[in-house]
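1st attempt posting a full record on here, be nice pls
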Amino acid sequence: MSASLPQEQAIEAQAQTPPPRGPIGRTFSALQYRDFRLLWFGAFMSTTGTWMQTVAQGWVVLNMTNSPFLLGVDGFLATGPMLLFSLFGGVIADRIERKKIMLLSQYLQMTFAFILAALLLSGNARVEHIFILSFLTGSAQSFSGPAYISLLPLLVRREDVPNAVAMNSVQFNLARVIGPLLAGIALAAWGAPACFAINGVSFIAVIIALLLIRSPKVNKEEAADGMVNEMKAGFRFVFSRKKLLVLTFLAFAGTFIGMPLVTFLPVVAKSIFAIGAKGYAWMMTTYGLGSVCGALLVAASAYSAKKGKVALTLQFVFACLLTIFAFSRSLPLSLVLLFFSGMCVVGVISLYSSLVQLTTSDSMRGRVMSIFMLAFRGGMPLGNLIAGYVATRWSITTALAINGVVLAVVALTFIARRTQLDE
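the predicted structure (as tokens):
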């Protein structure tokens, strides 16, 4: 369903320039819209704080327990709520003004970050506290995620939707670079509580942005018909379109098999390279730098065709890089592999997400994106648990190598079948 005429006029009014033609203009075209720009900068500040907490929390859990498995459990609890609540979040995003959902989620996440900082400062923090707060934070994110991703396309013209998705990846991954770097400095200077406190403060930026933007109204096809029935309608929409089914599966496979690379970087840093917290932060930063470069490349090519073919190719390349990384014992080589892995991962995520957005009507967008996010984000906790078990039972090398080979087989299968994602 297209945007209403008033909404289209409002979006046009926000654009300060005609549709961009040059390479620089095309790369940053979504930022010409006032509301998208406000949300972009607010989200960037908040995500930077979140990455500071992610780095510090992984290090704290590993040092508290010395267990890769419990590190995987923390990752499961942080992302697992997506399995439980994201479908409800999608229905709510199609019913209620999306920025209201997001505001409530930001207030909750800010509170949880301050609680964790206080527990660590008082010396009363135990790993169970971290697990509980990880679950609560993940629960809040599972409701705001569908609302956020469904709001982005309503802030720009349809032809700029792929660029908006790519620019969102830019802010996320730029934060992935800066956040771990700041986390390394804060961990060394003030300890983990500072990272959690800074994360709490960072939510103020996105809260201000949400209060300032003019959120478009949700276009409803019909009156609310009960959550379960609306959820079923979302699944019927996805299952009636083969392209959406394939994209959802590939997103699940990519995160289930590929993302343990990021979750278990503390284990690689500590047990293989013995480089400490600062070294771990630099590994995360290198991965993030590659992700930023990948997001910028996708943003610049957002108006080109064959996005599906490019995404499948990038997924296969990432699988190969992951396999090599598993066996690498050279820190410089591993950093290079992390850089290009980041490029590939963000390219795959941005391209698959853009294709889903362009195949979905606004009235169904919250539900469809919640199903996509259930696959995309839901693959992470399950993959973390299995990889954590394999790493504990055998080694982190075995866990990452198996994942790399399996992901390569998945990507090659769809490439060999000449799967059409661009039609």
